[in-house]
Amino acid sequence: MPDLSTTTRPAPSIGVALLAAVFGGWLMSLAYPDPGWWPLLLPGLGFVLWALRGRSIGGGLLVGAVSGFAYYGALIEWLTVYLGIVPWLALTLAQVFFTALGGALIALAWRWIPRAWPGTAGRLVLTPLVVGGAWMVRESVSSVFPFGGFAWGRLAHSQAEGPLAPIVAWTGFSALSFFIAALVALGVAGIVERRLPRAHRASMPVGFAVLLLVWPAFPVTIIGTTTIAAVQGNSNSGLFADYERGEILQDHYDATRPLFGRDDIDMLVWPENASDIDPLRNEYAATVMDVVSEQVNAPLLVGTITADGEQTFNSQLLWRSGVGAVDQYDKIRPVPFAEYLPAREFFYPLAPDLFDLVPRDFAFGTRDTIFDVDGVIAGIAICFDIVADDLFLQMIDEGAEVIISPTNNADFGVTDQSVQQLAIARLRAVEAGRALVNASTVGASAIIAPDGSTIVDLPRFEPGTMVADVPLSDTITPAHALGRTLEWLVIVFTLSTMLGAGVLARPRRGDNAV
């Protein structure tokens, strides 16, 4: 077996590797809003991938865990605002479990691939591609498992304001994460290479970066426009908010009044939980819906909590004055440990004080994801639906021409959560080739064009309205046409190559080093 020490620079010591992992993970977190310094993702990820070179399985687990804690701990700090440190720590450690496993897989890729294929192509092309694939495999698993996973903080999410955002219409989120990870791994492989001249080592990452940067945006066909108004009530609607019954409803009614008397609005959007009284069960709330719909001369899309027998749903209603609710979307994917407690009999006794924060379990919706609003097909995605790839595939399959994303961000105060969510929504608009209306109780609220640009937005924590002529589209982007095909191809490529390398590579002295 060739001696790789003559072709690549030595791996860092475990102490240096751990420092690089912490710094890299923290640097990566800064690429996401806020501050949203997207270029920092590349050096941050580079430090993490470099720290995993030369590690054993145990060392990969350790470095992966440390980088994951620095990364997710900083990224989801917003969870501490009302819920405290315990839920933040629990969710961070859950993600650390996956980043540790991903670190071990990446460490094995750095070891095995160049031993199995020791030539220049193996070291500088195949190895970085497998390392990038290993990162994407970790993201793909943690995004769906367990209990639907936690798809927050994927590499792709950092690029909402960056030059790589248009690629998501071609590839979807997972494959864009793969391209980013592979690009950074190509850079790391070039830096540690010893034999080739610097220009040759730089050619692969630079060439790949240029290819990604010049890749054209997918053309979106506009089939018409519709005038949409959206309301931000700036209501005190958090989980622990102290408010009078009907106060949240009143806030959104008051914020909507400047729109009364207009006759140019085709649909009016209120956020998730905009009515704290269910108009399906309360005459007063139903009367308010009627008045609002009548005064703006348009159907109202309103978020509220509904019930069907013993089941409770997080719902969005399509309401018409004098008729009532003519359609309803029930959130298909309630958030585990927030909107329901999985395996309550098991988890509740472990931390009863904590899980008293989840007193009821929302049921899983089974309705379709669209409303027909006078011939305009609007797809509905409530709050954290925004991260669920399969729901957006379903929505476009059902004919959505515009996406409505009502949300309630009040639980997270003046933190980065709402702007991180808006960044994901911006990428969804690009991926789907659809305009998107992100209407929040407190912000960040914006109407986004199919190319990801902002049509109109509102400052956070101020009541207000947005009105815009919103483009409609029936374009099927390659990301939608392919679905999860690219993701599965990368998974199969990565794992099969790793398996082949594991068979071909032979253990050498030092393989048990940390």
Give the helix level as a range of percent.
40-55%
CATH architecture verdict of the largest domain: 4-Layer Sandwich
Count of DSSP strands: 12
Structural class: alpha/beta
Shape: globular
Number of helices: 16
What is the count of structural domains? 2
Distance between the termini: 21 Å
- The CATH topology of the largest domain: Nitrilase/N-carbamoyl-D-aminoacid amidohydrolase
Task: Lay out the secondary structure.
Blueprint (H helix, E strand, L loop, with lengths): L13 H16 L11 H11 L5 H19 L4 H4 L1 H32 L3 H23 L25 H25 L5 H17 L7 E11 L14 H10 L10 E3 L13 H14 L3 E9 L2 E10 L3 E7 L13 H4 L4 H4 L14 E4 L2 E5 L8 H9 L4 E6 L9 H16 L3 E5 L4 E4 L5 E5 L5 E10 L4 H5 L2 H20 L10
Parallel strand pairs: 1-2, 2-3, 7-8, 8-9
Antiparallel strand pairs: 1-12, 3-4, 4-5, 6-7, 9-10, 10-11
Keywords, please?
514 residues; alpha/beta; Nitrilase/N-carbamoyl-D-aminoacid amidohydrolase; 2 domains; six-stranded mixed β-sheet; 15% strand
